[in-house]
Amino acid sequence: MENSFNQLINFIQEKTGFMCQLYKERPLKRRLRVRMRALQLNKYDEYYDFLRKNPNEFKELVRVLTINLSYFFRNPETFEFLQQNVFPEFKDRSRVIFWSAGCAGGEEPYSLAILAEQAGILSKVQIYGTDIDEEALGRARKGIYNSNALQYLSSELIMRYFESEREQFAIKEYIKSRVTFLHHDLFQLPPFPHCDLIVCRNVLIYLDRKAQRRILVNFNEQLKPTGYLVLGKVELLLGIPEMKLFDAVNRAEHIYRKLGTGT
User: Fold this and answer.
1) Under a CB-based contact definition with an 8 Å cutoff, are residues 132 and 59 in contact?
2) Where are the domains of the chain?
3) pLDDT, tens only, 130-185
4) pTM
5) Which of 195, 180, 226 is nearest to 95 (CA)?
6) Residue 104 backbone zone (phi > 0: left; psi -120 to 50: alpha; other: beta)
7) How far apart are CA 163 and CA 175, in angstroms?
8) Structural domain 76-143+173-258, CATH architecture
9) How does 235-245 read in b/e, with b if 16+ C-beta sit within 10 Å?
10) Continuous H helices in 17-43
11) DSSP 8-state class, residue 147
């Protein structure tokens, strides 16, 4: 069974570039089985044969492997801390760069844009949202959401930042225009300027320690001196040497600041 599993993940990596071997085995297998059950397949070698004969299945598989359910202002306490303690630092800067890494359907980077508007710095902010799921990026670029994604927003905020379209809500253009969405693998440095703030929540939890360390080094390199890093509240990265590159600003909300005066 292990040989067929290894054959499968090597094939997936070869065809999609998705680095299966860097992910924890248990959640990886769980997500593979989602697609296998949908296709009524029981064995890894059966799914391997199916992928060989049906290359369109790779699109569905990558979607399942990268799915990250989200909504606007998820974990409101995190955004409240950013609004009160971090964003005021950006008011005196001529240009501010945010990166939402693993942005899924765009709820997080648009939340950052709304927060920037409330802080009076939207005109100087450029936000990049990246993911490896092209389907999710397509949804993010459209900027249209159902009411469930807006569950933590008051009716006042919904009216202020969204246009109602039947039973859906479209992010207003002046917010949408501040966000650029790109296909990007976190194991590589991104093709945009160094960042004042990187938000990467509930992504590292699925990776093994080697992959976590590699991505943290990339984040450190991509941040401006004393730039901020926000991780997921469930991501406990204790014992990882690369966390010493950052100083904890708020441990409860997993908000960190780059140490030193590097790039």
Assistant:
1) no
2) 2-66, 76-143+173-258
3) 998 888 899 999 999 999 899 889 999 999 999 998 889 999 999 999 999 999 99
4) 0.79
5) 195
6) left
7) 12
8) 3-Layer(aba) Sandwich (3.40)
9) bebeeeebbeb
10) 25-38
11) G
